[in-house]
Amino acid sequence: MRAERMKSMPHATLEAKGLSKTYDAGAGPVTALTDINLSVHSGRFASVMGPSGSGKSTLLKLFGLLDTPTAGEVRLEGRATSGLNDAERTRLRAARIGFVFQSFELIPTLTVAENITLPASLEGRLKQSGERLAWLAGQLGLEGLLNRRPGTLSGGQRQRVALARALINEPALVLADEPTGNLDRAAGLNVLQLLRDGVDAWGWTVMMVTHDPNGAMMTDDVFFLQDGRLVDRVDPHTDDGRRDLARFVTGEDG
Ligand SMILES: Nc1ncnc2c1ncn2[C@@H]1O[C@H](COP(=O)(O)OP(=O)(O)O)[C@@H](O)[C@H]1O
Ligand SMILES: [Mg+2]
User: Fold this and answer.
1) Where does the chain show beta strands of DSSP type E?
2) Residue 78 within any structural domain of the chain
3) I need a labelling partner for 146 at 20 to 30 A (CA). Which of 50, 112, 180, 234 fits?
């Protein structure tokens, strides 16, 4: 029902409007992003590619409300986020955004189930999260692992736990920064396929940073960054788009 309502709304789930970011590093300012404009609509799987240092992680952090832009703004479900104070931003992030880190960022002393439901308990929704936990565990193949600690799991299993944690509060937007970067090929493909299935079957909205052209090939929209600028946008569903991506496979980019 929510997916229906979102589709009829005029705005995108995620919008960047003239987004720029300059870091004040010790050796002087570093401009990481310059005037980024893009949008991701509900029920879409978007990806960001670009060389190391091109600003991909900075962009995802701004989208995840983990940092604030120097200029421009991030709009989430049609709402401006620039006027929010820290507490409001934290609350909005917890309620509407799920973030998946390359390095999983699981808490070693908690069980898998406790890790997954942590965002729900922070939101005071632990009691209601049981059904969602069971459903996610089923979808992500984690049923047998719920009482284990992260240290006893494989990389692929840990990333699936991180994904479940990102999804426990039914976020409007899932952000994933190189979610397959620490996985072997088979486990990486498995995580990509889960994201794809989630978008297709349950209407998740996902934006993923990836180095892997084959991963980008599985998304609906690929945004290319270079030196902090959005330099290209490719549709992998078209022959032209697939050709552009295939060029990356043969090694223009690392
Ligand atoms: N916290 C920071 N302080 C200073 N400079 C940073 C910080 N984070 C990133 N940068 C710089 O911003 C640029 C973009 O970095 P990043 O967004 O991590 O790129 P990518 O994820 O594409 O590798 C780089 O020049 C990087 O050194
Ligand atoms: Mg990065």
Assistant:
1) 14-25, 28-40, 45-49, 71-76, 79-80, 97-100, 173-177, 206-209, 221-226, 229-234
2) no
3) 180
CA of 100 to the centre of ligand 1 (A): 18
Ligand 1, CB within 6 Å, residue ranges: 23, 25, 30, 32, 50, 52-58
55 CA to middle of ligand 1, Å? 6
**Cα three-residue angle 150-126-179, rounded to 5 degrees:** 40
Assigned domain for 11 exists? no
Q: Pick the ligand that lies closest to the CA of residue 51.
A: 1
Question: How many domains are contained in the chain?
Answer: 1
Give domain status of residue 74, yes or no. Answer: no
Is 20 part of a structural domain of the chain?
Answer: no
Residue nearest (by alpha carbon) to ligand 1 atom 24: 53
Please give the distance, rounded to the nearest whole angstrom, from the Cα atom of residue 225 to the centre of ligand 2.
11
Predicted confidence (pLDDT) at residue 254 exceeds the cutoff of 50: no
Q: Name the closest-CA residue to atom 14, ligand 1.
A: 55
Structure tokens at 241: 């788009």
Residue the block writes with tokens 């917890």: 94
pLDDT tens string 65-124: 999 999 999 999 999 999 899 999 999 998 999 999 989 999 999 999 999 999 998 888
CATH code, 247:
3.40.50.300
Alpha-carbon gap, residue 209 to 178, rounded angstroms: 5
Q: Render pLDDT for 212-236 as a digit per residue (tens, 0 to 9).
A: 999 999 999 999 999 999 999 999 9
* Atom of ligand 1 at shortest range from CA of 31: 12
